[in-house]
Structure formats: structure tokens, C-alpha cells
Specification:
This protein folds into 2 domains: 1-116, no CATH class; 120-250, Heat Shock Protein 90, CATH 3.30.565.10. It is an alpha+beta fold. It has 5 helices and 5 strands. Helix content is 65%, strand content 14%. The protein has a 5-stranded mixed β-sheet with strand order 1-2-3-5-4, covered by helices on one side.
């Protein structure tokens, strides 16, 4: 074999070995990247499960302290009617008090039902469930809604988006002292789902790196789990702007 052919053969062998090494190196990098992404997704999923467990515990306390307390009060008042010789006026006054207890217990039960399981999604679809949620909060403040929620999104992801919206309204009700809330949901030509939420309340406190507060942390964790982006500010109230890639939600 001539020197020239030997050099060509060595060069081909070296080139082949280099190609195999490069492919192996790329596979290792891709594998590590996919493993890292999977670990991050599993971590976010755990955070969501922890948040859901916290929500269940909070709902349990609300039912015990709220509905339980109201029903106990109604039972005591009815017991006064059963065991005592009361005048018509006294019984009417007690009946009014009991009616108030039952009315408030009904409201508490409805709120707890929404928090536990968004059954309205199964009954009315995600778009109808959002309409109903906004209608329920409309008794607390003025709600402006533009709801163009698209079809074809995975049901599990729909529930996560519903929980985000629910958390936004709960924060506005409990912390912002808002009088007016607006929510806009629409899709763009670039195949993204966008949501804008604004309330005219006092806003919220946060540093430049992390949203603070369990409710707001849940919003951020759910957004990251869905592969979305979130921007927020305190300009004239609380402002949230979400973008989700629709191809990641199917």
C-alpha cells in the first residue's frame, strides 16, 4: 500500500472516529438536557401537588370554621324555639337570624365547591366555567370579561389555567380591596394563548426576583408547568400578563 493511500485511510479512520465521538457527545448532552427538563417538570408538578394539598387543608378549615360555625349557630337558635315559650315576635327575630346563617352557609358551600373541584368545567366546558366563575365574583366587585378561550387544549391543562384565574380573583378579593377587575382571554396569529388580568386595588408586594405569597407563588409555578410566560406589575393596581404556546397545551 502506498504512502498516499495509507494517509487517506488514516484520515478516514480518524474522521470516522471523530464523527462517532461527536455524535456520542451530542447524545450525552441531549440526554442530560432532557433529564434536567424532566427533573424541572417533576419539581414543578410536585409544587402544584403541594399547593393543591394546601388548598384542600385550607378548604377543610374554611368548611369547619365557616359552614360548621354557621350551622352550629342556626342549630342553637332553632333549639331556643323548640325548648322555650317564646312570643311570635321573638320567634320571628330568631327565624331572621337563622335565615341569615343559612344564606351565608350556602355562599360558603358554593365557594368551597368551586375551590375543591371545578365541576363547572365538566358541565359547561372551560369557557363556560370561566364565565360562571366571573359571575360568582361579580357580587364582590365589578368584573369585565372578554372570554375567547380556544378549543382543543388538554383537559388537565385547562384545569391548571382555571386554577390560575381562580387564584387571581381570590387574591383580588382577599388582599387588593379592588372595586373593579378585568380579565381578557384571546389567541393570536402566532398560535399563542394570552391572558390579561387587572384589578384597581392596592396591588401586592414583591421583590425583583420572586413573587411572594403562597397564592402568587402558585400562579407562577402553574404558569411554568404549562411552559408559559408571566409578567406582572403594580401599576395602578395588580397587573398580570400571561402567554402560553398552544402547541404545548394540546
Amino acid at each position: 500500500m502506498s504512502k498516499e493511500r495509507e494517509d487517506i485511510l488514516i484520515a478516514m479512520m480518524f474522521g470516522g472516529a471523530s464523527f462517532v465521538f461527536l455524535i456520542t457527545f451530542m447524545i450525552i448532552i441531549i440526554y442530560r438536557y432532557m433529564k434536567k427538563v424532566q427533573s424541572q417538570k417533576e419539581f414543578l408538578f410536585k409544587l402544584i401537588l403541594d399547593a393543591q394539598e394546601d388548598e384542600r387543608n385550607r378548604i377543610g378549615r374554611d368548611i369547619h370554621d365557616g359552614i360548621g360555625g354557621l350551622l352550629s349557630g342556626a342549630k342553637i337558635q332553632i333549639g331556643n324555639i323548640v325548648s322555650g315559650n317564646l312570643s311570635i315576635l321573638e320567634m320571628q327575630n330568631i327565624a331572621n337570624v337563622v335565615y341569615g346563617y343559612i344564606t351565608n352557609a350556602s355562599i360558603e358551600a358554593r365557594n368551597a365547591t368551586h375551590a375543591l373541584t371545578p365541576s363547572s368545567i365538566a358541565l359547561s366546558g372551560i369557557k363556560g366555567a370561566i364565565d360562571q366563575l366571573c359571575g360568582d365574583f361579580n357580587q364582590h366587585f365589578e368584573v369585565e370579561l372578554i372570554n375567547n378561550f380556544p378549543e382543543g387544549i388538554n383537559k388537565h391543562y385547562e384545569i391548571q389555567i382555571y386554577r390560575i384565574i381562580q387564584e387571581l380573583f381570590n387574591n383580588a378579593l382577599k388582599h387588593s380591596n379592588a372595586k373593579k377587575v378585568s380579565l381578557s382571554i384571546f389567541t393570536t396569529q402566532s398560535n399563542t394563548l394570552e391572558m390579561k388580568f387587572h384589578d384597581n386595588g392596592v396591588g401586592f408586594e414583591y421583590d425583583t426576583k420572586e413573587i411572594v405569597g403562597s397564592g402568587l407563588s402558585n400562579i407562577k409555578n402553574r404558569t411554568n408547568f404549562l411552559g408559559g410566560n408571566l409578567k406582572y406589575s403594580n401599576l395602578e393596581g395588580s397587573n398580570f400578563f400571561f402567554t402560553f404556546h398552544l402547541n404545548k397545551l394540546q
